Amino acid sequence: MPPCQHLPERYAAVFDAYAAALAQAPLDEHTRRAYASRVRGFLAWLADAAPTGGDPLAEAHGRDFAARDYRSHLKTVLKRTPATANAHLVALDHFFTHLGLGPANVGRDEPEPIAPRALTPREQKRFLRAVEQRPLARDRAIGRLLFYSGLRVSELVALDTDDVPLSARKGKVIVRAGKNDDARTVPLTDASAREAVAAWKRERASWPGAESGALFLNRRGGRLSDRSVNLLLDEIAADADVVDEDGHPALSAHVLRHTFGTNLARSGKVDLVTVGQLMGHKRLETTRRYTLPTTADLEAAVGNLPADE
Known about the structure:
The protein is mostly helical. It has helices at 9-24, 29-49, 60-76, 82-98, 121-132, 137-149, 153-157, 191-204, 226-240, 253-265, 272-279, 284-288, 295-303; strands spanning 172-175, 184-187. The chain has a two-stranded antiparallel ribbon. α2 crosses α4 (82-98), α5 (121-132) crosses α9 and α6 packs across α10.
């Protein structure tokens, strides 16, 4: 639903109040933008839907009926996938909680046993080309480091300069406090990634805050934030034409992390225990997701059926 679509005054005021609250919510920028777009789409639908069962913005029964009808609308009219419909319902849960109603009582489709979203080989090439075109050495280093190390965004911004030691032939990324405060070391074997980080370290010496320990700095000399990295990845997504079915940027540190894991698991050369260790997984079942079929795999499988010629 285009974010500029007009809403009736009664819903415009509700949306503006939600957007103001959303700006203060402890969510990353990508999530805030997605929630705002999805809730606006729901309100635009609601303006024409003439829901029954009570006021959906003030009564629990009305909320539930409207959420169920909207779920059906997403799947049957807009032809959204079950996963996308579920994502819209998560945004509505946040919205209804903001209104004081709590999450809607509406069922979710069980997600298909399918691999996490990762960049396709073509998207990976476009991503790396877009990274190479970034004017700042810092941003080129961030793009390549995320792609070749599988770091979470929180792990990336927490890096200090000595956490990425480099030599002419070797390098590594030392994650000192990953999820659950676990530490791990990821070898940085790609020469282009090592050179990108080395180039940034050279340029960093002339930036404000160069005397601090933080590897990635903002323009004021402070440690770069998660939000800044997410905004950078949105820009790269636009340059690389990596968007979802709603036209939103479909690139994040988590997608790059999934791409790293998928590339390793599907290479046929790395066992899952090693993949899990490189990614900092506690459970092997988490790592096994990268061996599940992708949508492209399913299409290729069916495409192998004999043709009637």
